Protein backbone atom coordinates (compact mmCIF):
# COMPACT_ATOMS: atom_id res chain seq x y z
CA UNK A 1 0.00 0.00 0.00
CA UNK A 2 3.06 2.26 0.03
CA UNK A 3 2.35 3.25 -3.57
CA UNK A 4 -0.59 5.30 -2.26
CA UNK A 5 1.83 7.39 -0.22
CA UNK A 6 3.88 8.23 -3.27
CA UNK A 7 0.91 8.63 -5.64
CA UNK A 8 0.37 12.40 -5.04
CA UNK A 9 4.07 13.07 -5.57
CA UNK A 10 4.06 10.96 -8.71
CA UNK A 11 1.04 12.82 -10.07
CA UNK A 12 2.72 16.19 -9.43
CA UNK A 13 5.84 14.99 -11.24
CA UNK A 14 3.77 13.80 -14.21
CA UNK A 15 1.87 17.10 -14.34
CA UNK A 16 5.12 19.11 -14.19
CA UNK A 17 6.65 17.02 -16.97
CA UNK A 18 3.51 17.38 -19.08
CA UNK A 19 3.36 21.12 -18.47
CA UNK A 20 7.04 21.49 -19.39
CA UNK A 21 6.52 19.60 -22.63
CA UNK A 22 3.45 21.72 -23.46
CA UNK A 23 5.39 24.93 -22.73
CA UNK A 24 8.24 23.83 -24.98
CA UNK A 25 5.81 22.97 -27.78
CA UNK A 26 3.95 26.29 -27.50
CA UNK A 27 7.16 28.34 -27.25
CA UNK A 28 8.53 26.50 -30.28
CA UNK A 29 5.39 27.39 -32.23
CA UNK A 30 5.80 31.04 -31.24
CA UNK A 31 9.39 31.12 -32.48
CA UNK A 32 8.43 29.28 -35.68
CA UNK A 33 5.51 31.68 -36.19
CA UNK A 34 7.86 34.66 -35.97
CA UNK A 35 10.18 33.07 -38.54
CA UNK A 36 7.22 32.37 -40.86
CA UNK A 37 6.10 36.00 -40.57
CA UNK A 38 9.64 37.23 -41.26
CA UNK A 39 9.69 35.03 -44.38
CA UNK A 40 6.33 36.37 -45.63
CA UNK A 41 7.55 39.93 -45.10
CA UNK A 42 10.75 39.20 -47.05
CA UNK A 43 8.66 37.98 -49.97
CA UNK A 44 6.82 41.33 -49.85
CA UNK A 45 10.13 43.22 -49.98
CA UNK A 46 10.28 44.06 -46.28
CA UNK A 47 12.98 42.81 -43.90
CA UNK A 48 12.65 42.52 -40.13
CA UNK A 49 15.45 41.45 -37.82
CA UNK A 50 16.36 41.14 -34.15
CA UNK A 51 19.93 41.54 -32.93
CA UNK A 52 19.02 38.85 -30.38
CA UNK A 53 15.77 36.90 -30.03
CA UNK A 54 14.83 34.63 -27.14
CA UNK A 55 11.68 32.89 -25.90
CA UNK A 56 11.26 32.61 -22.11
CA UNK A 57 8.62 32.93 -19.38
CA UNK A 58 8.37 29.34 -18.12
CA UNK A 59 6.18 28.09 -16.52
CA UNK A 60 3.09 30.29 -16.97
CA UNK A 61 4.01 32.80 -19.67
CA UNK A 62 5.40 32.82 -23.16
CA UNK A 63 7.68 35.83 -23.56
CA UNK A 64 9.31 36.79 -26.82
CA UNK A 65 12.27 39.15 -26.37
CA UNK A 66 13.62 40.96 -29.40
CA UNK A 67 16.64 43.18 -28.76
CA UNK A 68 17.25 46.05 -31.20
CA UNK A 69 14.49 45.17 -33.69
CA UNK A 70 15.14 46.71 -37.11
CA UNK A 71 13.11 47.18 -40.27
CA UNK A 72 13.94 47.96 -43.88
CA UNK A 73 11.66 47.85 -46.88
CA UNK A 74 9.05 49.48 -49.02
CA UNK A 75 5.85 50.94 -47.55
CA UNK A 76 3.29 52.24 -50.05
CA UNK A 77 6.02 52.86 -52.62
CA UNK A 78 8.40 54.62 -50.20
CA UNK A 79 11.66 53.21 -48.87
CA UNK A 80 11.60 53.07 -45.07
CA UNK A 81 14.20 52.00 -42.51
CA UNK A 82 13.89 52.00 -38.76
CA UNK A 83 14.71 50.43 -35.44
CA UNK A 84 14.18 50.71 -31.70
CA UNK A 85 15.64 49.54 -28.41
CA UNK A 86 13.70 46.41 -27.45
CA UNK A 87 10.40 44.59 -27.91
CA UNK A 88 8.84 42.25 -25.36
CA UNK A 89 5.66 40.37 -26.34
CA UNK A 90 4.03 38.11 -23.76
CA UNK A 91 1.01 35.84 -23.39
CA UNK A 92 -0.16 33.48 -20.67
CA UNK A 93 -0.04 29.80 -21.55
CA UNK A 94 -3.65 29.42 -20.42
CA UNK A 95 -4.75 32.55 -22.35
CA UNK A 96 -2.63 32.63 -25.53
CA UNK A 97 -5.18 34.72 -27.47
CA UNK A 98 -4.26 37.84 -25.44
CA UNK A 99 -0.84 39.20 -26.43
CA UNK A 100 0.66 42.21 -24.66
CA UNK A 101 3.74 43.91 -26.07
CA UNK A 102 5.88 46.61 -24.49
CA UNK A 103 8.49 48.62 -26.37
CA UNK A 104 11.67 50.34 -25.24
CA UNK A 105 12.77 53.38 -27.19
CA UNK A 106 13.88 55.32 -28.94
CA UNK A 107 12.16 54.49 -32.22
CA UNK A 108 14.01 55.93 -35.21
CA UNK A 109 12.48 55.90 -38.71
CA UNK A 110 14.01 57.29 -41.90
CA UNK A 111 11.98 57.78 -45.07
CA UNK A 112 12.29 60.08 -48.05
CA UNK A 113 15.07 62.13 -46.50
CA UNK A 114 13.09 62.70 -43.29
CA UNK A 115 14.10 61.25 -39.94
CA UNK A 116 11.59 60.64 -37.14
CA UNK A 117 12.74 60.06 -33.59
CA UNK A 118 10.13 58.95 -31.02
CA UNK A 119 10.78 58.56 -27.30
CA UNK A 120 8.34 57.70 -24.50
CA UNK A 121 7.95 56.63 -20.89
CA UNK A 122 5.54 53.73 -21.53
CA UNK A 123 4.60 52.16 -24.89
CA UNK A 124 2.22 49.21 -24.61
CA UNK A 125 0.15 47.38 -27.23
CA UNK A 126 -2.32 44.54 -26.64
CA UNK A 127 -4.14 42.28 -29.09
CA UNK A 128 -6.91 39.81 -28.36
CA UNK A 129 -7.40 37.36 -31.22
CA UNK A 130 -9.89 34.63 -32.06
CA UNK A 131 -8.01 32.49 -34.51
CA UNK A 132 -6.66 35.07 -36.98
CA UNK A 133 -9.54 37.51 -36.35
CA UNK A 134 -9.01 40.62 -34.25
CA UNK A 135 -11.27 40.81 -31.19
CA UNK A 136 -9.69 43.80 -29.49
CA UNK A 137 -6.71 46.09 -30.03
CA UNK A 138 -5.32 48.68 -27.63
CA UNK A 139 -2.32 51.02 -27.82
CA UNK A 140 -1.19 53.17 -24.89
CA UNK A 141 1.63 55.67 -25.21
CA UNK A 142 2.65 57.84 -22.25
CA UNK A 143 4.76 61.01 -22.48
CA UNK A 144 5.73 60.59 -26.14
CA UNK A 145 8.06 63.10 -27.80
CA UNK A 146 8.27 63.02 -31.61
CA UNK A 147 11.11 64.88 -33.33
CA UNK A 148 10.95 65.32 -37.11
CA UNK A 149 14.08 66.41 -38.99
CA UNK A 150 14.63 66.96 -42.70
CA UNK A 151 17.75 68.33 -44.35
CA UNK A 152 19.14 71.47 -42.74
CA UNK A 153 15.76 72.69 -41.47
CA UNK A 154 15.25 73.04 -37.73
CA UNK A 155 13.78 69.87 -36.18
CA UNK A 156 10.06 69.97 -35.40
CA UNK A 157 9.23 68.66 -31.92
CA UNK A 158 5.78 67.41 -30.94
CA UNK A 159 4.86 65.99 -27.58
CA UNK A 160 1.85 64.68 -25.67
CA UNK A 161 0.89 63.59 -22.20
CA UNK A 162 -0.93 60.49 -23.44
CA UNK A 163 -2.01 58.77 -26.66
CA UNK A 164 -4.57 55.97 -26.64
CA UNK A 165 -5.95 53.96 -29.57
CA UNK A 166 -8.60 51.23 -29.31
CA UNK A 167 -10.28 49.04 -31.94
CA UNK A 168 -12.76 46.17 -31.82
CA UNK A 169 -15.62 44.70 -33.85
CA UNK A 170 -19.02 46.16 -32.98
CA UNK A 171 -21.32 43.94 -30.94
CA UNK A 172 -24.21 43.99 -33.43
CA UNK A 173 -22.14 43.65 -36.63
CA UNK A 174 -18.83 41.73 -36.32
CA UNK A 175 -17.84 42.96 -39.82
CA UNK A 176 -17.91 46.57 -38.57
CA UNK A 177 -14.98 47.99 -36.64
CA UNK A 178 -15.21 50.56 -33.86
CA UNK A 179 -12.20 52.84 -33.30
CA UNK A 180 -11.46 55.23 -30.47
CA UNK A 181 -8.60 57.74 -30.28
CA UNK A 182 -7.61 59.92 -27.34
CA UNK A 183 -4.84 62.54 -27.59
CA UNK A 184 -4.26 64.30 -24.28
CA UNK A 185 -2.27 67.54 -23.86
CA UNK A 186 -0.66 67.54 -27.28
CA UNK A 187 1.82 70.28 -28.22
CA UNK A 188 2.35 70.51 -31.99
CA UNK A 189 3.77 73.45 -34.00
CA UNK A 190 1.24 72.95 -36.82
CA UNK A 191 -1.70 73.18 -34.42
CA UNK A 192 -0.13 76.24 -32.75
CA UNK A 193 0.27 77.98 -36.11
CA UNK A 194 -3.33 77.23 -37.06
CA UNK A 195 -4.83 78.37 -33.75
CA UNK A 196 -2.50 81.30 -33.05
CA UNK A 197 -1.59 80.10 -29.54
CA UNK A 198 0.78 77.59 -27.95
CA UNK A 199 -1.66 75.93 -25.56
CA UNK A 200 -1.77 72.10 -25.75
CA UNK A 201 -4.87 70.48 -27.19
CA UNK A 202 -7.02 67.45 -26.41
CA UNK A 203 -8.69 65.34 -29.09
CA UNK A 204 -11.20 62.55 -28.49
CA UNK A 205 -12.77 60.62 -31.37
CA UNK A 206 -14.99 57.58 -31.80
CA UNK A 207 -15.42 56.10 -35.29
CA UNK A 208 -17.21 53.10 -36.79
CA UNK A 209 -16.04 51.62 -40.10
CA UNK A 210 -18.85 49.75 -41.84
CA UNK A 211 -18.37 47.29 -44.67
CA UNK A 212 -15.97 44.43 -45.32
CA UNK A 213 -12.41 44.42 -46.59
CA UNK A 214 -10.45 46.25 -43.91
CA UNK A 215 -9.55 43.07 -42.01
CA UNK A 216 -8.41 41.04 -45.00
CA UNK A 217 -4.87 39.64 -45.04
CA UNK A 218 -3.52 41.95 -47.74
CA UNK A 219 -1.47 45.15 -48.12
CA UNK A 220 -3.24 48.28 -46.88
CA UNK A 221 -3.97 49.74 -50.36
CA UNK A 222 -5.69 46.49 -51.38
CA UNK A 223 -7.72 46.44 -48.16
CA UNK A 224 -8.80 50.05 -48.64
CA UNK A 225 -9.81 49.34 -52.24
CA UNK A 226 -11.81 46.25 -51.19
CA UNK A 227 -13.49 48.38 -48.52
CA UNK A 228 -14.29 51.13 -51.06
CA UNK A 229 -15.75 48.67 -53.56
CA UNK A 230 -17.89 47.20 -50.76
CA UNK A 231 -19.36 50.71 -50.26
CA UNK A 232 -17.70 50.98 -46.87
CA UNK A 233 -18.27 54.10 -44.81
CA UNK A 234 -16.56 55.71 -41.83
CA UNK A 235 -19.20 56.97 -39.41
CA UNK A 236 -17.79 59.68 -37.18
CA UNK A 237 -19.85 59.20 -34.05
CA UNK A 238 -17.94 61.71 -31.95
CA UNK A 239 -15.12 64.23 -32.28
CA UNK A 240 -14.19 66.56 -29.43
CA UNK A 241 -11.34 69.06 -29.75
CA UNK A 242 -10.25 71.61 -27.14
CA UNK A 243 -7.39 74.13 -27.38
CA UNK A 244 -7.28 77.31 -25.32
CA UNK A 245 -10.67 79.02 -25.89
CA UNK A 246 -11.56 76.86 -28.90
CA UNK A 247 -14.04 74.02 -28.40
CA UNK A 248 -15.13 71.90 -31.34
CA UNK A 249 -17.54 68.96 -31.49
CA UNK A 250 -18.38 67.18 -34.74
CA UNK A 251 -20.06 64.14 -36.25
CA UNK A 252 -20.57 62.93 -39.80
CA UNK A 253 -19.82 60.26 -42.38
CA UNK A 254 -17.03 59.71 -44.89
CA UNK A 255 -16.15 57.23 -47.63
CA UNK A 256 -13.61 56.99 -50.47
CA UNK A 257 -14.34 58.40 -53.92
CA UNK A 258 -13.24 56.86 -57.24
CA UNK A 259 -9.92 58.73 -57.00
CA UNK A 260 -9.31 57.10 -53.59
CA UNK A 261 -9.77 60.40 -51.72
CA UNK A 262 -11.85 60.88 -48.56
CA UNK A 263 -15.26 62.37 -49.29
CA UNK A 264 -18.08 63.26 -46.91
CA UNK A 265 -19.59 65.76 -44.50
CA UNK A 266 -19.11 66.90 -40.93
CA UNK A 267 -21.59 68.81 -38.79
CA UNK A 268 -19.55 71.07 -36.50
CA UNK A 269 -20.57 72.87 -33.34
CA UNK A 270 -17.84 75.16 -32.08
CA UNK A 271 -16.84 77.99 -29.77
CA UNK A 272 -13.83 80.22 -30.39
CA UNK A 273 -13.15 78.82 -33.86
CA UNK A 274 -13.00 82.18 -35.65
CA UNK A 275 -9.16 82.54 -35.58
CA UNK A 276 -8.78 79.04 -37.01
CA UNK A 277 -11.27 79.73 -39.81
CA UNK A 278 -9.49 82.94 -40.75
CA UNK A 279 -6.15 81.12 -40.97
CA UNK A 280 -7.83 78.61 -43.29
CA UNK A 281 -8.48 81.45 -45.71
CA UNK A 282 -12.14 82.10 -44.94
CA UNK A 283 -12.68 85.90 -45.17
CA UNK A 284 -14.39 87.82 -42.35
CA UNK A 285 -17.46 88.48 -44.52
CA UNK A 286 -18.08 84.76 -44.92
CA UNK A 287 -17.56 84.31 -41.19
CA UNK A 288 -20.19 86.99 -40.54
CA UNK A 289 -22.62 85.06 -42.75
CA UNK A 290 -21.97 81.92 -40.73
CA UNK A 291 -22.52 83.78 -37.48
CA UNK A 292 -25.75 85.25 -38.82
CA UNK A 293 -27.00 81.82 -39.83
CA UNK A 294 -26.23 80.54 -36.33
CA UNK A 295 -28.02 83.50 -34.72
CA UNK A 296 -24.91 85.14 -33.24
CA UNK A 297 -24.18 88.03 -35.60
CA UNK A 298 -25.03 90.66 -33.01
CA UNK A 299 -22.57 89.10 -30.56
CA UNK A 300 -19.67 88.58 -32.99
CA UNK A 301 -17.33 90.91 -31.10
CA UNK A 302 -18.44 90.02 -27.59
CA UNK A 303 -16.08 87.07 -27.09
CA UNK A 304 -16.27 83.40 -28.08
CA UNK A 305 -19.81 82.42 -29.14
CA UNK A 306 -21.31 79.17 -30.44
CA UNK A 307 -20.97 78.67 -34.17
CA UNK A 308 -22.57 75.87 -36.18
CA UNK A 309 -20.90 75.03 -39.48
CA UNK A 310 -20.79 72.24 -42.00
CA UNK A 311 -17.54 70.90 -43.41
CA UNK A 312 -17.64 69.16 -46.78
CA UNK A 313 -14.91 67.22 -48.55
CA UNK A 314 -15.67 66.64 -52.22
CA UNK A 315 -13.40 65.99 -55.22
CA UNK A 316 -10.36 66.49 -53.02
CA UNK A 317 -11.33 69.97 -51.82
CA UNK A 318 -12.43 71.14 -48.38
CA UNK A 319 -15.31 73.59 -47.91
CA UNK A 320 -16.53 75.14 -44.64
CA UNK A 321 -20.10 76.30 -45.00
CA UNK A 322 -20.42 78.07 -48.38
CA UNK A 323 -16.68 78.86 -48.59
CA UNK A 324 -14.04 76.66 -50.22
CA UNK A 325 -10.73 76.63 -48.31
CA UNK A 326 -7.26 76.24 -49.85
CA UNK A 327 -6.96 72.83 -48.19
CA UNK A 328 -6.62 69.90 -50.60
CA UNK A 329 -7.08 66.21 -49.71
CA UNK A 330 -4.77 63.83 -51.64
CA UNK A 331 -5.57 60.20 -52.51
CA UNK A 332 -4.88 57.76 -49.68
CA UNK A 333 -3.35 55.15 -52.01
Count of folded domains: 2
Low-confidence stretches: 296-300
Percentage of residues in strands: over 45%
| Gyration radius from CA atoms, angstroms | 25 Å
Total E-strand runs: 22
With helices defined by DSSP (H or I, 4 residues minimum), what is the helix count? Answer: 5
Biggest sheet layout: 15 strands, antiparallel
Helix content: 10-25%
SSE order, one letter for each helix or strand: HEEEEEEEEEEEEEEEHEHEEEHHEEE
Calculate the terminal CA-CA distance, rounded to whole Å: 76 Å
Overall pLDDT: 82
So what's the overall shape?
globular
Given helix and strand content, the structural type is alpha+beta
Strand order in the largest sheet: 2-3-6-7-10-11-14-15-16-17-18-19-20-21-22
Account of the 3D structure:
The chain is of the alpha+beta class and 333 residues long. The chain folds into two domains: 24-159, no CATH class; 179-333, no CATH class. It is built from five helices and 22 strands. The protein has helices at residues 2-43, 189-195, 220-229, 274-279, 284-293, and strands at residues 46-49, 52-56, 61-67, 70-75, 78-83, 86-92, 95-104, 107-111, 114-119, 122-130, 133-142, 145-150, 156-159, 162-169, 177-186, 201-210, 233-243, 246-256, 262-271, 306-314, 317-320, 323-328. It has a 15-stranded antiparallel β-sheet. Strands 1-4-5-8-9-12-13 form a seven-stranded antiparallel β-sheet. Strand 4 and strand 5 form a beta hairpin. The longest helix has 42 residues, at 2-43. It is globular.
Amino acid sequence: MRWRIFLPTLLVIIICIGWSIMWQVVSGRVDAGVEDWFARERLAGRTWACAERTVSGFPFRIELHCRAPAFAGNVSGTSVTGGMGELLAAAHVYQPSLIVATMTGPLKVTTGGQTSDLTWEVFRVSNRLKGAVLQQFALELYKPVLTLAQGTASPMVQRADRVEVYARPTEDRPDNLEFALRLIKVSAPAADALSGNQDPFDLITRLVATGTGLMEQAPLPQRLEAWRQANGTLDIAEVKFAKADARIEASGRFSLDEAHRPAGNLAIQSVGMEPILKRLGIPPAALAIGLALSGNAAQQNAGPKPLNLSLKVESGRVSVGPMRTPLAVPPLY
